[in-house]
Amino acid sequence: MATTSCQQRTTHETAATTKPNVLIIYADDLGYGDVSANNQGKIATLNIDKLAASGVRFTNGYATSATCTPSRFALLTGTYPWRNKNAQILPGDAPLLIDTASMTMADMFRQQGYATGVVGKWHLGLGRGHVDWNQPIMETPNDLGFDYSYIMAATADRVPTVYVENRRVAGLQANDPLYVSYEKNFPSQPTALTNPELMTKMKWHHGHNQSVHNGIPRIGYMKGGKAALWDDASIAAVFLEKAKAFVDAHQKQPFFLYYALHEPHVPRVPGARFAGKSGLGPRGDAVLEADWCVGEIMRKLQEDGLADNTLVVFSSDNGPVLNDGYYDEAVEKNGAHTPWGQFRGGKYSLLEAGTRVPFIVNWPGHVQQGTSNAVVSQVDLLASLAALVHSSTQALDSQNLLATFLGKSTKGRANLVLEASGRLAFRSGDWLLIPPYRGKPLNEEVNLETGLSPTPQLYNLASDLGQRTNLASIQPAKLTELQQQFKQVVGPDFQANTEELQLH
Ligand code: NG6
Ligand code: CA
């Protein structure tokens, strides 16, 4: 008897170790310095900090890009987004960006017997173009390896402001069809420009002046679908419930859940219990709400006895921004908080704060707890998680850094390409090259530095985290070395595509 139970336990433990659940929690526009474990910021992200305290906290963890769509493309495909010219911020009616024939992270897990789900912000397109939102949608996450999906199509500031569950708009009634256009308004439909009095909740600062829903103006035009429209203040709670339900439904089978929070992206409309909590206005409150979601999903795993058998990755799709198009007091109430940490730039920027993001990996009993300075990117998760579950899946730009992600090795990537609005920067060791580009040094609308300059920039990130001293003219040999490596890594095709962006 004793032998049998021991054998059973061994078998069970082996299965748990070789097929742990995997949960990726992916915040939206959360800066490195928004997480209090990373920085002496003014928001206490206690739940994220708790993940960090018993896990591996990366100080050189990157999203591939300084905006959402390309970073998510890389996360799910293990391929640099600049290899796909369409991997840029998508409208809410864009077709599915990822080729359904490609091997995604969800496909990889499914092949290994996992139940796979995505809950939250998608922003990788749906359908084949000209989606009819009133019919089953062909080409959704369900065609990229996810068994279950409950998503918003793009962002909360873009129409349609509805949830899509698998292939259907959730809660849509047949007698009130939903129509969406990013080209022209529907006859007699009000917009923020024709009917500014409709903006009872929030006003636009730049962009975001088309259809109005819940007193908030959005990007794009929409008509109908009333019963399906979401309530902004409960987006976080709705996604959390769906994520918890997915966990509930997969107590026996290993699961992969990609839980993509919307916070703290605009429009920032935190739930009632967070309104006013941070003292930093709705952006700070939305960061607290994201932290709460992390705590709640972790609590769910704990309650179900799954916490020890679940590898959790926490990260963000790009760096922070205060004013991203609405008057929401993010700038006025930010005070001494530093969402960008010690780094320069922010969302949309080639400078570090654009892509260097919170990055934590936890798996109780399996990680070597601590802080890691290894250079790691979200593009590496596919190959690394494939190694975790003994899949032979590889992807073009994804490196197997499993030991590093578990804190057992300090070896990171030798080099990394970073992207912002189709332009690239290149990190090699401690050195960071930003080639010369046309364009303004300051994105005036959001008041963030772009990192663009007509002359090359070279920084030593070991001694100059804040990118204050451009060493390009002081270290010409190093500059040449990085330029050559960069050319070699991105290859002649991309070089040709970007020549028009570059001065030389
Ligand atoms: C920009 C939007 C910004 C945000 C961003 C996408 C305007 C003026 N600005 O175009 O508000 O929606 O796209 O953010 O429309 S991301 O995190 O999804 O990449
Ligand atoms: Ca984002």
Briefly note the structural class of the backbone: alpha/beta
Strand content: 15-25%
Largest sheet: 10 strands, mixed
Oligomeric form of this entry?
Answer: single chain
Which CATH first-tier class of the domain at 26-172 and 231-405 would you pick?
Alpha Beta
The count of β-strands is 24
**Given the C-alpha coordinates, what overall shape results?**
globular
Mean pLDDT figure: 94
Question: Could you please describe the fold and organization of this structure?
Answer:
Helices cover about 25% and strands about 20% of the residues. The chain is an alpha/beta fold. The chain has a domain of about 325 residues: Alkaline Phosphatase, subunit A, CATH 3.40.720. The strands form seven sheets. The chain has a ten-stranded mixed β-sheet, sandwiched between helices. It has a four-stranded antiparallel β-sheet with strand order 19-20-21-24, covered by helices on one side. It has a two-stranded parallel ribbon with strand order 3-18. Helix 5 packs parallel to helix 6. It is globular. 2-acetamido-2-deoxy-6-O-sulfo-beta-D-galactopyranose binds next to loops.
Provide a compact summary of the structure.
This protein is of the alpha/beta class and 504 residues long.
Helix and strand topology:
Layout: H1 2-18, E1 21-27, H2 46-53, E2 56-58, E3 61-62, H3 68-77, H4 105-111, E4 115-121, E5 148-152, E6 163-165, E7 168-169, E8 178-181, E9 203-204, E10 212-213, E11 216-217, E12 221-224, H5 235-249, E13 255-260, H6 281-303, E14 310-316, E15 326-327, E16 359-362, E17 370-372, E18 376-377, H7 381-388, H8 402-405, E19 415-420, E20 423-428, E21 431-434, E22 442-443, E23 448-449, E24 457-460, H9 476-498
Parallel strand pairs: 1-13, 1-14, 2-17, 3-18, 4-5, 4-13
Antiparallel strand pairs: 2-16, 5-6, 6-7, 8-12, 9-15, 10-11, 14-16, 19-20, 20-21, 21-24, 22-23
The structure holds 2-acetamido-2-deoxy-6-O-sulfo-beta-D-galactopyranose and calcium ion.
